[in-house]
Specification:
There is one protein chain. The chain is an all-alpha fold. The chain is about 85% helix and about 0% strand. The protein has 9 helices and no strands. α3 crosses α4. The longest helix is centred in the first third of the chain and has 84 residues. The termini are far apart. The relative contact order is 0.09.
């Protein structure tokens, strides 16, 4: 049976009311979501602003630290170059080769080049020979890794031995007595040490501690590279301010 006009009208009114209620509910949900998104947007903007400020501050610190490190590295290179010229008569090409070797050792073993240059200089001064100094530095790195003594202390002991005073070697804990060192002679002692400790620096570099040290050195080298790139501008600025 067909619905009468009054019933139909009532149903239409009820459906219209439901539609309006649903529409209002949806509008409230949208407004609520919009409010949340607006709040999130403000929080995100503040977070991004803080991150940008922190990044800018870090970049500034990196630039300053990098320039300081680059200046110190440049001065250390100049000191070593002068010493090698005076002691061994090294050419610019030989000095560049030494610097390349020091950089390679620094990255491979996780030891700052600031530690390696004085050690190389000490050995070069004692031996008067670049090849012996390079071999001596590698030996110093191996003995240092095996005994826990600093590279500087080991290099100094090796340098004294080359100068005729082998007593310092016995205090490194290398397992050789003064009598044994004397009987073997300097060259024999160096060969014995290379046999005993060879590869220790490489083994140390492959430990977790060694890997962390290598990463630290790489980061420091990257920082120095930033500083080196900025040095020309720093020099220009210094001239203008003078």
């Amino acid at each position: 049976m067909a619905k009468d006009w009054r019933t139909l009208k009532l149903e239409i009114l009820m459906e219209t009311k439901q539609f309006v209620d649903d529409l209002k509910k949806s509008e409230n949900q949208v407004q609520g979501f919009s409010g949340k998104m607006e709040k999130f947007g403000k929080m995100a903007a503040a977070a991004f602003a803080a991150a940008a400020a922190a990044a800018a501050a870090y970049a500034g610190k990196l630039a300053i630290d990098g320039v300081k490190a680059a200046l110190a590295d440049e001065a250390a290179q100049a000191r070593l170059a002068k010493a090698l010229q005076n002691v061994t008569g090294a050419t610019n090409a030989q000095i560049a080769s030494v610097e390349k070797q020091i950089n390679k050792m620094s990255l491979a073993f996780g030891i700052a080049d600031d530690e390696l240059r004085p050690s190389f200089q000490r050995l070069a001064t004692a031996t008067g020979d670049l090849t012996k100094a390079q071999d001596g530095l590698q030996l110093a790195l191996d003995i240092s890794a095996a005994t826990g003594k600093s590279v500087e202390a080991v290099s100094n002991a090796l340098g004294k031995a080359y100068e005729g005073n082998t007593g310092a070697l016995t205090r490194l804990g290398i397992g050789l007595s003064a009598a044994e060192i004397k009987s073997q002679g300097l060259e024999g002692t160096m060969r014995q040490l290379a046999q005993t400790f060879g590869g220790s620096a490489t083994n140390q570099a492959n430990t977790l501690e060694g890997q962390i040290n290598r990463l630290r050195v790489r980061f420091d080298e990257a920082k120095e590279s930033v500083g080196m790139a900025l040095l020309p501008a720093v020099r220009i600025f210094s001239v203008l301010q003078a």
